[in-house]
Amino acid sequence: MKMENTIELKNVSYKRNQRVILANINLEVEKGTTIGLLGENGAGKTTLMRSIAGVAKGARGVIKIKDETGIVERKALVSYTDSLDGFSKGSKITDIVDFYSQVYPDFSTNEYRELSDFLDFGSDQQKLGELSKGMKEKLVISLTLARRASVYLLDEPFEGIDSMTRKKIVNSLIQWKAPDAVMMISDHYISEISGLLDEVAIIKDDHLIAHEKTEKIREQGVSIEDYYEGLYDEEVTTNDESQKNE
Ligand SMILES: Nc1ncnc2c1ncn2[C@@H]1O[C@H](COP(=O)(O)OP(=O)(O)OP(=O)(O)O)[C@@H](O)[C@H]1O
């Protein structure tokens, strides 16, 4: 029986000022999957997530979320960790929460309250400009997970968050999504999140170089981190050789 794909990417490319940032990405993610998007700085992870979320304008190819390809329809299905750059520094947390509940019909204020209590980052009356980096990231996580979305895209969600809290969040992350929802996480602390992941997708130099189930990787007696690093090294050698032949 064919499983249902929640995310389907066909030949997704993205260029900026004539520069290729994503090249022909093909990826299918089945419903319910938690997938790690891995790659070094500048590989294209954020651009891919922004393309899926419909925030990055000008992505080419087919981006399908639950059979919807339109940007408006996709935005309604996808909850992406927004940087909150659109809000002024003087905005109070409570105003941002109100904005979310007005803009996203699937935003649950109750769930937001549970998340913000759990992450414990201060009062609703605090202003965005007064939050520390970690506190702001906790706010972003709470806003993102408080939607009842089909897809959650968490782009380096633990940046600036202390290691104890990081572990606490990682341990509880799955419970904040519906069983059928897809969660895609990009993070540089691979060993910390690897226990959560059903699959990994690896991006290198604008290309998707691997997409594999973590169970298969572990069956080979390899850790996710070693698998990732091994693949990265392998590709570097290949590129060097192709350059030599040019
Ligand atoms: N606004 C922009 N203008 C021009 N180039 C950009 C812009 N944003 C990203 N890029 C380029 O696109 C490429 C991919 O960037 P992207 O942010 O998607 O990488 P990433 O994998 O998320 O990196 P990191 O792990 O550092 O967050 C980089 O080479 C970067 O220089």
From TrEMBL:
<dbReference type="InterPro" id="IPR003593">
    <property type="entry name" value="AAA+_ATPase"/>
</dbReference>
<protein>
    <submittedName>
        <fullName>ABC transporter, ATP-binding protein</fullName>
    </submittedName>
</protein>
<dbReference type="InterPro" id="IPR003439">
    <property type="entry name" value="ABC_transporter-like_ATP-bd"/>
</dbReference>
<dbReference type="InterPro" id="IPR027417">
    <property type="entry name" value="P-loop_NTPase"/>
</dbReference>
<dbReference type="GO" id="GO:0005524">
    <property type="term" value="F:ATP binding"/>
</dbReference>
<dbReference type="Pfam" id="PF00005">
    <property type="entry name" value="ABC_tran"/>
</dbReference>
<keyword id="KW-0547">Nucleotide-binding</keyword>
<keyword id="KW-0067">ATP-binding</keyword>
<feature type="domain" description="ABC transporter">
    <location>
        <begin position="7"/>
        <end position="230"/>
    </location>
</feature>
